[in-house]
Design the sequence.
């Protein structure tokens, strides 16, 4: 696939950019990079890529079946088709990304990406091999139904993710009017922050217009510097622990919580539901 070849060619560019950024911060802020953190990010990336390639072997034929037998339209070729492809996928990425923060089953995979207390270009590599299990691929199925081929779907998803590599940096300040249109490093820094002001904001892939339209946008504030990581911070660089710690906690809650509603919420409620339940006052007449 041509897009995959492009991304393969970009891999040295990504590594070079990480090297340049690490050199840039070496004297300015030496703690910006950590060898253990960077190696952990790289290992998680390799694990993710392996799982992703296996998943595509099953998912692409499914997209092809939807496209061949159930599409409602055939999208035009050329620039018009590409613009439509780009806009539709970017909107669906926004939906996926927002759901990944608000549904615990999806968050169990996505939390890996947010688990570092640093934010640098290598953080973009910090991904989970559990995305196919969580169901990320389901969010692209509407594209096959409305008439985009599997090659187009996979290609535009990869291009969207390639763009997002470059927003994982603290070296670039706000970018003026571009902040109204594109996802920028400043916008994405706020997304990665665990300060209450920034939690569950700025889900943009490429276009930030979706955040502005649907009320999830917040501006990075100099008065409240971003603190990176997750609320329940996990202090480890072990890729296996980082990958499965939330799945393990979720399984424990499903087994131990009483009642089917609680079990359902432990799986598909918002990630903070567990804490809200633990701190809620007991109903009158009830005891623990």
Sequence:
């Amino acid at each position: 696939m041509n897009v995959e070849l492009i991304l393969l060619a970009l891999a040295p560019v990504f590594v070079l950019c990480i090297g340049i950024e690490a050199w840039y911060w070496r004297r300015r802020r030496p703690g910006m990079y950590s060898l253990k953190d960077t190696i952990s990010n790289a290992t998680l990336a390799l694990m993710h890529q392996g799982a992703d390639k296996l998943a595509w072997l099953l998912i692409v034929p499914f997209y092809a079946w939807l496209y061949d037998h159930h599409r409602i339209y055939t999208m035009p070729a050329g620039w018009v088709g590409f613009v439509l492809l780009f806009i539709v996928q970017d909107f669906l990425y926004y939906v996926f990304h927002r759901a990944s923060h608000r549904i615990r089953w999806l968050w169990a995979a996505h939390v890996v990406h947010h688990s570092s207390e640093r934010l640098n270009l290598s953080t973009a590599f910090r991904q989970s091999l559990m995305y196919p299990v969580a169901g990320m691929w389901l969010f692209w199925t509407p594209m096959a139904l409305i008439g985009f081929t599997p090659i187009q779907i996979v290609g535009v998803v990869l291009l969207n993710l390639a763009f997002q590599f470059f927003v994982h940096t603290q070296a670039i300040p706000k970018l003026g009017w571009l902040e109204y249109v594109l996802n920028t490093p400043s916008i994405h820094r706020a997304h990665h922050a665990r300060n209450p002001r920034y939690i569950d904001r700025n889900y943009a892939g490429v276009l930030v217009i979706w955040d502005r339209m649907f009320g999830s946008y917040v501006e990075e504030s100099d008065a409240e510097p971003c603190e990176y990581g997750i609320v329940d911070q996990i202090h480890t660089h072990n890729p296996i622990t980082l990958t499965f710690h939330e799945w393990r906690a979720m399984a424990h809650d499903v087994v131990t919580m009483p009642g089917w509603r609680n079990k359902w919420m432990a799986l598909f409620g918002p990630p903070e539901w567990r804490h809200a339940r633990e701190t809620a006052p007991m109903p009158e007449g009830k005891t623990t």
Observations:
- Residues 35-70 form the longest helix (36 residues).
- The chain has one domain: 40-253.
- The chain has twelve helices and no strands.
